[in-house]
Predict the structure.
Amino acid sequence: MAGTPKTNAAQRPNTAEGIADRVVHRWPGALVFIFSVLIYANTIPNDYNLDDHLVTRSHRLTARGIAALPDIFREPYYKDNAGYAYEYRPVTLASFAIEHALFGENPHISHFINVILYGVLCLLLYRLLRILLSGYHPLLTLFIVLLFAAHPIHTEVVASIKNRDELLAVIFGLLAWHSALRYCNERTPAKWRWLPGVALGFLAGMLAKQTIVVLAALMPASLIIFRGVGWRQVAALYATLAMVMFPVLNLPNVTLRLQVMAAPALFLIFILFLMHYQGYYTRLSELLRRAISAAKGRERPENATASSLTSTAENEGIDAAWLPVLSVAALTGFFTAWYFASKFWMYAALILLGALLVPAGYRTRPVIYLMFASAALFLGFYGQVEPMMMLVTVLVTGAVISFNAKGAWRYALWIILAGILAGGGWLRGYYWGVLVPGFVWSVMKFSQRTGRVVMVLSLIAAVFLITFSLIGSPPATLWRLVLLLGSFSVLSFILIRKYPLRYVHAVFMTALIGTLMFTRDELVWEYRQPVNMEKLAQLNWENPLNITPKNLNRPLQFIEAPVHRLSPLSEKIGTASYVLLRYLKLSLFPYPMRFYYGYREIEARPWTDGIALTGAALHGAFFIVACLLIVRRRLLPGFGLLFYLVSIASFSNFVTIVPGIMGDRFLFIPVLGIAMLIGSLCWYVFKISEHTEEPLTSLPVAARASMLALLAIYSLMTIARNTDWKDELTLYRNDIRHLNNSAKAQDMFGVTLLLHAKKTTDPNLRKELLQEAVVHLKRSTEISPDYKNPWFDLGQCYLLLGKLDEAYAAYERTLQLDSAFIVPCLDMAIIQYEKKNYRQAIPLFEKYLQKFPQNLSAYANLSYCYFMLNDYEKSIAVSRAAMVHFPYNYEPYINIGKVYLKQQKLDSALYYFRKTQQFLPNDARLQQTIHDIEKTLKR
């Protein structure tokens, strides 16, 4: 503790505690890396598992090795023959392509790489937190990272080869975060060199997996909270992240849309206010107290409001304490209007938000502008208006932040006009002519410092326009824009030494806007894939055709997500609250863990449901507590709680629906916030100062024992859970006992058992596996009788078990649920064929061949059915159709010959038998048949 004298490391006794103390203080990074690797080392002997086929095992791209890299950066992450194509994760696929080129397809190498990547991730996290929390006890930082590393919920990410995308995304996200921290820590002009590192790191992370999009809010928030950085640095950082975030989220096949940023972006702005105005909480409380006193007659109203509505600071405008309330209300209105797709109220809220710049003071205006710019860019890039037009609107209003309060009413006209013109299509023809001169005039008012920020961001914009031009294959017009933007950026830097900065900016921005004016119509790209409405109609949702096509690249079945975009708001709120409660439980007590959830493991719940209300109330209380902790300078627990709430909000299913409703892997990032919270609580409970550097041996014995016990429990649970991921069958068999109510999980296990049964050559084992599969597939049909997949899989199991009647009934149910799915028709036809029910078999064969005409045996069986019914003409017609698809196969020829032989048309029969002989020249039986026919014809 604080009064305990420090002991030199060289004087400590050579005991276990002394050795541990030296390791912790001298090699903490090595300790973190080795610890992280060791607890997952037992995953290396594991085989391929759940969804690993998405990136390995004869993958269409990664199996080609390094030669596939150009195609990897042009192709979607997933694409199949059914026409589905979604997600864009080229960095992840590139890692597997390189691995395949070096080592081939080897699951043990893949697992080893995942383990090493996890160790690197934890090491980077420790180094980042050590700098970010430099004023805190180093053992506290170490405990937080070790707790994160040991948390069992990470097994799905590390033990699953496919989930390397999460590891790579977070690693690059941490590198971007580290660059942002260096940018804010430096006090020299050279600090701007770190912004490209932020952009490149975040870009690589986003191209590995877009789930790190939440860091665009959390990264700046951490710097505001722990470093107290100013609004200019935050604006530059946020703009740099936005230049990466918006284009990536609008690339082809990216299904994680900007919706997921609504809550984090709003949340970040709220934190910006709290941190930018240190006395906000106290001032607002005082304003409210005096207003209440005035209402009760205890204080005259003029005394209560005079000092609150005017500031003693020059050019401050209205009191800053009122602005967070007004701004959060405006942003809430904007996102609510956007959520319900009301354009009128969206623009009204946006204009109101911009109008707050008028009464705001000179110091207050930048923070409000960040809010306005976030909302405007969100609206523009979401596709409600032309993105470049909205971008210019943001830049125009940005000029207002450089002016003092005098004459603010003039600039209010620019804000309102920009908002109206951005949404009014009938005025767009005059948009550029009105705003360009005003913008150029405004830009000349920029200060030297602000000008340099704009110039650096302009260069970054040029670089990323070029990058995404190469990736997105945009129209040729964009190349002109890229060329001009890059050229004028370079020209501006050349001229900057000779001419005043504001004039250089005027030239640069005039050229930029002039270019936009001639290219704006061609810069509105439609990235999203067209949706096959026939496929949408097969979903189990009500009114599926009303779903907005451009928001749906990977349609989810009801069995995967019992709530969807068309669900009632009360149901979405209730389900999201329930899911958040389940996530919280797993974050603290990670047992049992499951490979899947889905319906009916999680059902849609109204907001009035008791458990849902508990979840909503609890998380609402967490938000309030987190804000209070930060305001009262309890930064680490407050930020940890906020980190968890923001990062998990995107996966609650309120804003965007996730497959399976929830998943253990979605807690990979949020658990870091829980680790911060638990670490802070340990230090608080045992009354250890957060800001000292006492050695490990000086901590209370109870504190050391508690931390070691928690780490030991989590580590043992992780090591044990790793064995469950040995292979797919082991994982399913272990987890299925906790998934008795999940229709999808029961079907997945049943299908896996069926596939293993087909591969085995042991008849007894095959029968055992098929019987086990039937149990789980039947359970799936009980949970969701209208889910077709288990019915079809059940039919296959019964067919292999020789239970033809049961198989036919299961297939029949499949067709009742989905008449367009005609795959079962072949097995149903064969069952009727085996029973000699030829008339019942014929329509099933014909229906199947209409969809799949490349099945030779189906043609042969259909021809035989007509033959047995003495319908020789149709029998011959079927064989002739088979000849079209299989001109080099003998079966259609010999079948036609048999029909003619049956009809005693010997000449025709002889012709087709001789054709058959060309394929089977050594077939003795065929030769004898031809000889007999020739002998008969000679008579």
Observations:
- The longest helix spans residues 107-132.
- The mean pLDDT is 76.
- The CA atoms of residues 130 and 717 lie 27 Å apart.
- The chain is about 65% helix and 0% strand.
